[in-house]
Design goal:
The structure holds 3 protein chains of 3 kinds. By secondary structure, chain B is mostly helical. Helix content of chain B is 74%, strand content 0%. In chain C, strands 1, 2, 3, 4, 5, 6, 7, 8, 9 and 10 form a 10-stranded mixed beta sheet that branches. In chain C, helix 2 (33-47) links the parallel strand 1 (24-29) and strand 2 (50-55). Chain C is globular. Chain C: Keywords: Signal.
């Protein structure tokens, strides 16, 4: 699981995150919503270990990953992240992408590519893949290291509706079957309500609201939009 | 100016750049009566001695570029990707050694630094000494290009790697392969600059292939054979340049974007102090030691006064002609670069090829070619004036400036121009949209042209106007006279003025690229 | 487009402003700037004729300007060439770059030092000498002839400039003329085998001797004089004083064919050949040897050579030296 406690973070003396706390359970998906510049990406980067916060702590599977000056290196966190740009390595083929992150047995890699419908494309470079294939490769790479956590930074925002639907289902299926704690940053309110198990709304570096979906009750679109209302009028 | 006219101008300009060489090759292929004859081509059947010289030149070029990569690439990684001690200081100063022309580096290390190089039978001589000088002179080219590659790189590529593997694996498997085009480009540039350099080999008594060309010019006055003999050098360079072009494709190797200020920074822990020795030693050898030696050699203030008396004219002359040359390069290179970036099709390829051809030509060939071409009644207003020197510098170094400006134009989305075209003519679009957006690259191109012109010796000696003298020519004059104090003081003037000019350009660059809308 | 035109006209005005001048003379000279500039400045002051001078640089001693003169042959730019030696002068004559001019002082000089048709006139000369570092060896340690430097005891102890350029090329060509091709080539081979240090100029051989890196170096009197005046521990030796003698290298001055300013050019040549100039060069730092008839003879035995014949040997000599020294 992912537990973030009272994290504050600033860059060039500009506060980005203020006293942020949230948690995500294994096998579940937390949707992180908020306007641009709210600090969502920074939060993911802190969880992944790519940034160190000014204060607060990050606990991953009951182990302190970040606290004070201590920050476990990213590669030891068993956490994968899919960037908005997908960050596919232009000089590596599909199978080289998988091989780079894979630990131990090569069996899963092949299996994974089949599941992601990338079999037959092993020798292709990212440039030679279609848009959907690129997304699936990014997911496959993220899963190939058998992560306990998965962070997604608006990865499907540039895709058409049908493709996006398919990929999201594929992703959620993996999260559930492999018991991965995941956070997905999105702008799509309906999608978040429909698919996520919990939801956090972030405005100006603070968590505005945090629901645990279904368990508490079903969140309504109106409630979500209310949180943005304040922001829209410049509060 | 429509695109056709632009292309016509660009082809015309490449004609201007190439004409001196074509003139020489044409006259080399004619016999006494003026009819075509391939008789002179027989000199291309190199003797075994000439093969040895050519081999040594290639070896020198390859060795220097390898050395620059071995020194320059880690330097860039250390300064950009780690928290090595003093990184911001070293980042500010390391490239300054580029303003020390290689021949000054060679003179200083062989003459003014005790126990330096080439000291008779002690210390380094020959090839190792030349490697030493060229590597110290040119490694910042690789460092600069690698740094610009690091800045241009999508940060998430490295970060994704870091989520799964340690720093070394990320560096080896992701960062370095992605930097390879920049490293290769740096290596090629070093190779080109090294293989055509005659002055350093001359000072270090290394027999290289350009010496053979020089002998045909200067011992036998056989311009035809000398011209033909320069072909192997031009071809060798072109092979490397082509290989690099093919590999790089559309990728641009000069990044002029604003730094994202980000990128992974690896913590070195305690090693950050030990590893700081690496940039410290290199910067000391390439920059601090030569300057200290020059300061020591120049002696007391009286010597500076005397040097100023003897060399002030040359200092100002060099400064303004170099500035005018660099201005001309930036001005003329802009439309050519635009054609290279925005146009497709056969003519573009021809243009790209033409513009890179003079890379491997020795400076003396350009000088003689320039005299042959421009000493005509029609050009009387130009020949014998400083304009000839300026034109020669423009012809010699525009190919490099075009590369820099192309990179700037590539970064401007073509749609921005298309949108502009809906409301204004092409000239207005160029002036109001393209020019402001590419201004930093023009400044960078100007700086490159300025540094190269300021230190040119081989060509300027042949085309400088009578009664005038450039600073490098003056320095060589005093060197022969044995006036070491004056040589040192003038070299320091050269360095100080270059540094001051560059600082000014840097300020303008920062202002232009730091404006809010960027 | 308007800005372009303005820019262009500014450029052109600037260019024309610099090229328009009443009386001027264009002189190319391979004589060290430190020695030639004061003399040219005095001419300018005395006559009011503006002197536009092109000085050569050491990296391409004498040959840089000679190349420029040949390349400019079809449309000459220089009026006068003041050469620090004589062989390249003869080369220029062969390349049809010169035109005869017999100065009022032409008859002052012995026939050896001038062209019989007046294409060139030689004056104040230098000599090919040896420079020794007196902290390393003494004059008495030297062999009687430079030809002995091929002996094993001189291995690695002698430095010489590239015998393809400058006065060194002339020196070697003079040996071809004096002792014959076979002996000269054997000598050169012997030098190469004896690890003679070949460097890129006579000032470099001087500096190496001054620095004590080599005990003996071939150089010219003016280069040697610079070190002596500085008080360096060196001594100038006129070699072969009992044998073939020391090679004398006259300055030469000549008119360029088709010179743009022939009148001022003639005035400059007259001035350079005048007794005052020769005296100034004699008393100046370069300590040149006066050559006009009636001057006191040089304090050494001069090698008797025909400069025109020496010039003929230049190319075969260069070809041979290229084969053995440039590899």
């Amino acid at each position: 699981m992912i537990q973030v406690n009272q994290v504050s973070f600033s860059r060039n003396k500009k506060p980005i995150l203020r006293d942020v706390s949230l948690q995500a359970e294994p096998g579940q998906c937390l949707a992180l919503l908020g306007p641009s510049g709210a600090g969502k990406t920074s939060l993911l980067r802190i969880i992944a270990g790519l940034e160190t916060p000014d204060s607060g702590e990050v606990i991953l599977s009951a182990q302190v990953a970040t606290k004070g000056a201590f920050a476990a290196p990213p590669e030891e966190r068993k956490t994968s992240m899919i960037f908005q740009s997908l960050a596919l390595w232009p000089h590596m083929t599909v199978e080289q992408h998988i091989a780079f992150v894979e630990r131990g047995d090569g069996e899963t890699g092949k299996d994974l590519l089949t599941r992601m419908k990338l079999d037959g494309k092993e020798k292709h470079y990212p440039d030679q893949l279609s848009g959907g294939e690129k997304q699936r490769l990014a997911i496959a790479r993220a899963l190939a290291s058998k992560p306990r956590r998965l962070l997604l930074d608006e990865p499907f925002s540039n895709l058409d509706e049908i493709l996006k639907e398919n990929l999201l289902s594929l992703f959620l299926e993996q999260v559930r079957t492999q018991n991965i704690a995941s956070i997905i940053v999105t702008h799509n309110v309906n999608e978040a309500i429909e698919k996520a198990d919990s939801m956090a709304i972030m405005v100006s570096g603070r968590i505005k609201k945090f629901w645990i979906n279904k368990k508490d009750r079903i969140i309504t679109r109106k409630e979500v939009l209310e949180c943005f209302e304040e922001y829209r009028y410049g509060k | 100016m429509g695109r056709k006219r632009l292309l016509a101008f660009s082809l015309l300009f490449s004609g201007f750049v190439l004409a001196p060489f074509l003139m020489l090759f044409f006259s080399a292929l004619t016999n006494g009566e003026g009819s075509l004859s391939f008789e002179n081509l027989h000199v291309l059947k190199l003797t075994s001695r000439q093969w040895v010289l050519l081999g040594r030149s290639v070896l020198l070029g390859v060795g220097a570029s390898l050395g620059c990569v071995i020194l320059g690439a880690p330097m860039s990684l250390l300064l950009n990707r780690t928290d090595v001690w003093g990184r911001s200081f070293f980042r500010k100063v390391y490239w300054l050694s580029l303003i020390l022309p290689p021949y000054i580096q060679a003179i200083v290390w062989s003459k003014y630094i005790p126990g330096g190089i080439d000291s008779g039978w002690t210390g380094m001589t020959g090839l190792p000494a030349a490697f030493f000088v060229f590597i110290l002179s040119f490694y910042p080219i690789v460092t600069l290009l690698v740094s610009s590659g690091l800045e241009a790189m999508d940060q998430s590529l490295e970060e994704t790697a870091r989520l799964h593997r340690g720093p070394w694996a990320a560096m080896r498997k992701v960062t370095l392969p992605l930097l390879f085009p920049h490293i290769a480009c740096g290596a090629i540039l070093v190779f080109v600059f090294t293989i055509i350099n005659f002055e350093v080999a001359d000072i270090l008594r290394l027999k290289v292939y350009p010496l053979e060309i020089f002998i045909f010019f200067s011992a036998y006055y056989d311009e035809k054979s000398a011209t033909i003999l320069s072909l192997p050098l031009i071809f060798t360079t072109l092979i490397f340049v082509w290989a690099q072009m093919r590999y790089m494709g559309e990728k641009s190797y000069v990044n002029l974007g604003r730094s994202q200020g980000g990128g992974i920074v690896y913590s070195l822990g305690r090693r950050r102090y030990v590893l700081a020795l690496f940039p410290a030693v290199i910067t000391f050898l390439a920059l601090a030691a030569p300057i200290l030696a020059l300061l020591k050699g120049a002696g007391n203030l009286v010597n500076y006064g005397n040097a100023w008396k003897g060399g002030a004219g040359a200092v100002w002359y060099s400064l303004w002609t170099s500035a005018a040359s660099a201005g001309g390069m930036a001005l003329f290179s802009f439309p050519v670069a635009y054609c290279l970036v925005r146009m497709r099709g056969g003519l573009r390829g021809v243009l790209d090829f033409l513009i890179q051809t003079p890379f491997g030509a020795p400076s003396i060939v350009l000088g003689i070619g320039f005299i042959t071409l421009w000493n005509q009644p029609f050009f009387d207003a130009v020949y014998g004036t400083s304009l000839l020197l300026i034109l020669a510098m423009i012809a010699a170094y525009s190919p490099f400036v075009i590369k820099v400006i192309s990179a700037g134009i590539k970064r401007v989305d073509e749609d921005l121009e298309s949108v502009g075209r809906m409301g204004a003519g092409p000239l207005k679009v160029a002036a109001r949209i393209l020019l402001p957006l590419t201004a930093p690259s023009l400044i960078a191109g100007f700086a490159v042209g300025f540094i190269l012109s300021l230190s040119n010796l081989g060509t300027s000696l042949l085309v400088v106007a009578p009664g005038r003298s450039t600073l490098p020519i003056t320095i060589y004059n005093y060197l022969h006279y044995g006036a070491d104090e004056t040589v040192c003081a003038l070299s320091l003037f050269l360095l100080a003025l270059t540094a001051a000019s560059l600082a000014l350009l840097l300020l303008i660059y920062k202002y232009l690229s730091g404006r809010a809308w960027r | 487009m308007k800005h372009w035109r303005i820019l262009l006209s500014i450029l052109l005005v600037g260019v024309l402003a610099t090229s328009a001048s009443a009386e001027e003379v264009v002189v190319y000279t391979s004589v060290d700037r430190m020695f030639s500039e004061p003399i040219l400045q005095k001419f300018e002051k005395d006559t009011g004729i503006k002197v536009l001078a092109m000085y050569d640089v050491e990296a391409s001693k004498t040959v840089g300007l000679v190349n420029r003169l040949i390349a400019e042959k079809r449309r000459p730019r220089a009026d006068v060439f003041w050469n620090s030696e004589v062989i390249r002068t003869i080369q220029l004559l062969k390349e049809d770059v010169l035109t005869p001019y017999k100065s009022v002082y032409y008859d002052d000089f012995p026939a050896t030092f001038k062209d019989k048709d007046g294409y060139w006139t030689g004056f104040a000369g230098r000599a090919r000498v040896l420079l020794i570092n007196t902290t390393m060896i003494q004059e008495k340690d030297l062999p009687p002839s430079i030809l002995d430097f091929t002996k094993p005891e001189w291995k690695g102890k002698v430095t010489i400039a590239y015998p393809l350029f400058g006065t060194t090329a002339m020196h070697v060509a003079a040996l071809y003329d004096y002792i014959g091709t076979e002996k000269t080539e054997a000598y050169l081979k012997g030098l190469a085998a004896n690890d003679v240090l070949v460097v890129d100029g006579n000032s470099v051989t001087r500096d190496l001797v001054v620095q004590g890196k080599v005990p003996v170096g071939f150089t010219d009197t003016d280069d040697a004089q610079v070190a002596i005046d500085k008080g360096d521990p060196v001594q100038m030796i006129f070699p072969d004083s009992t044998g073939m003698g020391t090679l004398l290298i006259p300055n030469t001055v000549m008119m360029i064919k088709g010179a743009p300013h022939p009148e001022t050019g003639q005035k400059l040549i007259d001035y350079l050949l005048s007794p005052e100039t020769e005296k100034a060069l004699q008393e100046g730092e370069s300590a040149q040897i006066p050559l006009r008839k009636g001057s006191s003879p040089p304090g050494f035995k001069a090698m008797e050579v025909d400069y025109a014949k020496v010039a003929d040997y230049l190319e075969p000599s260069a070809k041979f030296c290229q084969e053995i020294f440039v590899r």
